[in-house]
Amino acid sequence: MKTIALLSLLLISISSCSKDDNTIPPTPSETMYFPSNTNSTWETKSISSLNWNQNAIQPLKDYLAQKNTKSFMILVNGRIVMEEYFNGHSASADWEWNSAGKTLVGTTIGVAQQNNLVNINNKASDYLGLEWTSMPLAKENLITVRNLLTMTSGNDDTKQYVIKSNLTYVADAGTRWAYSNIFQKLTDVVASASNKTFETYFNEKIKNKIGMDGFWNFGTIYTIYHSTTKSMARFGLLALNKGKWNNEQIINESFFKESIATSQNINPSYGYFWWLNGKTNYMIPGEQTVYQGYLVPNAPSDMYAAMGAKDQRIYVIPSKKMVIIRMGDASDPANPNFAVSGFDNELWGKINALIN
C-alpha cells in the first residue's frame, strides 16, 4: 500500500510538472514604435504577420488608384504595414492637407494654453483686439477661443475670405454650428500670445519635436499645410498616443482628449477640428441639416479623423492601434468637398476586407 501511495504521488507530481511545462505564457503586447527624428528609418511590419486578408490588397490598391489617390499608408503600433504611392507621387513629394491641417492649428492652441499663453475660455478679442469682426461689439464679445475651435462663433459661414468685412453676425456664439474659415484667426491668437509668427511657434512646439517636414501657406481664403505623407503619418501617430511622442508629452493629454470628444451640443460628431465617428448624428460643411447615424458607418466606432477637401485624411483608430493616411486629388472631381464625403465609407469597406 505504501508503494502504491508513493507511486500515485509521483504520477500526480509528474502530471503537474508536465502541465506547467506545456503552459505557454501570454505574448506581451507589442510596444508602440516612434520613428527617429534624425534619420529616415521607419520600422515596418508585414501584412502576413497580422493575419490580414492578402487577397484584399490588390482590390484596395486598384480602388485607391481609380479614386485619384497620391499616397496611402497604414501604421499599426507605429510601424508601417502598407505604404503606396500612385499617379507619379513619391515619398519625398509634398502635398496639401487642406482642412485636415485644422487639427494642427487646434493642437498648437492647446500647446499655447499649457504654456499659459492662451486660455480657450477667454474672449477671442483678448488676443485679437476689439472690433476684429464686423459684428456688433456685444456679439463679438461673445466669441471665445473655444468657439473658434468648435465652429460655433456665429459668423456668416457663406463668406470664405477671412477679412473683417466678411465676419458678420448670424447667431450668438455657441448657438449655431457652421463650418467656416474663421478658424484661421486662431493662428493670429497664437502669434499675438507668443510674440512669434504662428509658423515659428508651431515649428518649435510640434513640427520639430516629432520630426515632421512641411510648410504653411497662409491666405485670406485658406491656410493650408503641405508635407510628405510620412509627416502626416507622424502627426497621426502623435494623435493615436493622445499627444505623446516617445517619452515626451507634446500636448497636454487632457486637452487632447477634449479635442477628440464632442465639443458642443449641436454637432456631436465634431471635436476641436477632429471629426468623430460613433455618434448618434452629424452635420457636414455647408449645411445646417442633421443626419442620423455614424459619420462613417463602415469605420470603427472609436475612430477620430482629420478631414480635408479633396479627401485628405488621417484616420486614427485606438482600438486597433492604427493610423491610416490618404492624400491625393478629389476622389470625385465633380465634388471636391470640404471634408466629409461618401468616399470615406467606400474606402473603409475596402480597408475592412483587408484587416478583418
UniProtKB/TrEMBL annotation:
It holds the Pfam family Beta-lactamase. GO terms for molecular function: hydrolase activity. Residues 71-327 form the Beta-lactamase-related domain. Gene3D superfamilies: DD-peptidase/beta-lactamase superfamily. Residues 1-18 form the signal peptide. InterPro entries: Beta-lactam-related, Beta-lactam/transpept-like, Diverse_Enzym_Activities. The keyword Lipid metabolism does not apply. Keywords: Hydrolase, Signal. This is Serine hydrolase. The lineage of its organism: Bacteria, Pseudomonadati, Bacteroidota, Flavobacteriia, Flavobacteriales.
